[in-house]
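U., I forgot to send this yesterday:
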Amino acid sequence: PSQCDLFCSQNYPLYIRSVPTENELKFHYTVHTSLDVVDEKISAMGKALVDQRELYLGLLYPTEDYKVYGYVTNSKVKFVMVVDSSNTALRDNEIRSMFRKLHNSYTDIMCNPFYNPGDRIHSRAFDTMVNSMMMQVC
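Result:
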């Protein structure tokens, strides 16, 4: 099981995807509570975060069943990913790579002249990329 979410700087969701969908509410709660940890990490990094090109926040916190990872763009869009703790094949480099892939696809959406920044993301290409990435994780 895993979940992928994107939030704008005001913490409302731009995109949410869960695989499988049966525990979706539990995932939503986990992701929303992790936004506080993301904000804490951002404020703790302070100006150093602005100077860095790498915005991967790493493991936000582990639970008994899941690991929650975070990433923040330069424009303060937050990416949160929840993966099953039992998946020991996923290393930090793979998670970092998935966030880069998400960020690149998000950038493609932002470059679309028909997309209004801040609107929910409705893109078949983005859905396909996220689904393929999540199938690798499950």
